[in-house]
Amino acid sequence: xxxxxxxxxxxxxxxxxxxxxxxxxxxxxxxxxxxxxxxxxxxxxxxxxxxxxxxxxxxxxxxxxxxxxxxxxxxxxxxxxxxxxxxxxxxxxxxxxxxxxxxxxxxxxxxxxxxxxxxxxxxxxxxxxxxxxxxxxxxxxxxxxxxxxxxxxxxxxxxxxxxxxxxxxxxxxxxxxxxxxxxxxxxxxxxxxxxxxxxxxxxxxxxxxxxxxxxxxxxxxxxxxxxxxxxxxxxxxxxxxxxxxxxxxxxxxxxxxxxxxxxxxxxxxxxxxxxxxxxxxxxxxxxxxxxxxxxxxxxxxxxxxxxxxxxxxxxxxxxxxxxxxxxxxxxxxxxxxxxxxxxxxxxxxxxxxxxxxxxxxxxxxxxxxxxxxxxxxxxxxxxxxxxxxxxxxxxxxxxxxxxxxxxxxxxxxxxxxxxxxxxxxxxxxxxxxxxxxxxxxxxxxxxxxxxxxxxxxxxxxxxxxxxxxxxxxxxxxxxxxxxxxxxxxxxxxxxxxxxxxxxxxxxxxxxxxxxxxxxxxxxxxxxxxxxxxxxxxxxxxxxxxxxxxxxxxxxxxxxxxxxxxxxxxxxxxxxxxxxxxxxxxxxxxxxxxxxxxxxxxxxxxxxxxxxxxxxxxxxxxxxxxxxxxxxxxxxx
Length: 636
Prior knowledge:
Elements: H1 2-16, H2 34-37, H3 41-57, H4 65-68, H5 87-90, H6 115-128, H7 137-162, H8 178-181, H9 188-202, H10 213-216, H11 222-237, H12 266-284, H13 303-316, E1 325-328, H14 336-339, H15 345-349, H16 362-367, E2 390-392, E3 406-408, H17 416-421, E4 423-424, E5 428-429, E6 441-442, E7 465-466, E8 476-478, E9 480-482, E10 489-492, H18 493-508, H19 512-524, H20 530-537, H21 547-561, H22 568-574, H23 578-581, E11 586-588, H24 596-599, E12 603-606, H25 621-626
Helix pairs in contact: 3-6, 3-7, 6-7, 7-9, 7-11, 9-11, 11-12, 11-18, 12-18, 18-19, 18-21
């Protein structure tokens, strides 16, 4: 029976390992055992890559709750033909349920990965790593560290979704009693402590940099492990998990409370210390904020466009030449055509490669700062009340908005990150095959006759805004599709700087070190320092002087800097702010109108369905029947 069980385990891995850089060789008949899988170094390395397999599947942003439920991007429903799985985007419309949960990462259903199965693979690797006799001590230590990291990250992924989870520290033996299989959920504090312990064990034996990038880029490094540890501890310290009264009644069946009853400020100190350690490691490995260096074919590049490209390429630059990228996943981002407006007549003809379906709500556009570096509803110099009036592009704004093109007034006098992140009617689209400032594309989206405007429901951007930041400026959508690929960041240095500033503010309030790390990010974005901007331009200048005010600033800064990167959805959850963001209707422009005054009328597309219960995923009803020791998350 034990041999049969081992054979089944290996066959599961064989079937699911297709996303690795290497593949398990199919063994001869009758030899599908763990002894074969770990008979030598090469076979053990193949098994190591199966431990990475589920991680590589996370490249699909449409299955990432941080991407599809953040409210940053929405997707049309009821498409009559399209290959995208719409499960994740549908959650904003109230489709989540406990009978068949969407993005079910507990069981591996409804566009979710079976993460517990991935953890089992990691345990099998750790249990059998001593079997290959030709494996060097150095490699063995590194592989063990990589697998411990993966095991930690898989637990963390589940914890962000479900909160307290069962901790699979070792695999149960085939002879285990049925009662041993009915595992209970660990407490929130136990869950995060175990994840951190695995990361602490892993970090010392991981390399600081990947020296053989051709063969190993994407494998885990020490800076990655330390940066993830900082994010884990910040998550544990945040309001969702740190003294959250919404879950006071959530207990295991033995009466053990699964959430801490009281807030613990010391958790933020742990997060701050971890973030500073991670920053030191990243900078020691040569990482720095990305700044665009123009290639030889771009002979003239004004500072305004250079800043735009610095922000855009911090995400879309290739990993091996991007000094800011801490961690990305190996498969390339597959949705550039969904994020690009049609810019030419040939692009309209070849519409199949450029569906343009990723739509950015009006609220996301209005989240970006003015050019003074403060929110547009706080900027004393910004005509917030008249923001929906019409204004014509002029010479002063020609690198952001097409000259002599009429667009809405709130598109003017905004920070460079908005122009780097968004495509909009009248907005300049540098690239797509044109790199001369004398001949740049701009978006025309008003009415069905415009290139980017509505064509049919399967190629319709439902708001009139595109997530430009997700498109490499060298990708061309015209007579066919010529994509310059990239890997969507999981973590980059700007996010780590802001995470440190957030944690430090929670510990000590708005100290000079807090503003120093915020200003590192703002300077690259072409903005003044946070104190100078609020002092000189905000209607609430005292905001920077209080912990609460600085918290609001940092939260908005992270949402702006990391917009569309599958991060804000997780941040808004841990801050318990997602319900506030999604309480506003999802709006866009009046797409079928051709005249500016008629087009620029906010139109409600749908109203999100999000309540307290949606902060955590439901466990599938059937799982609660099979395992009588499991308890459901509150309100489901």
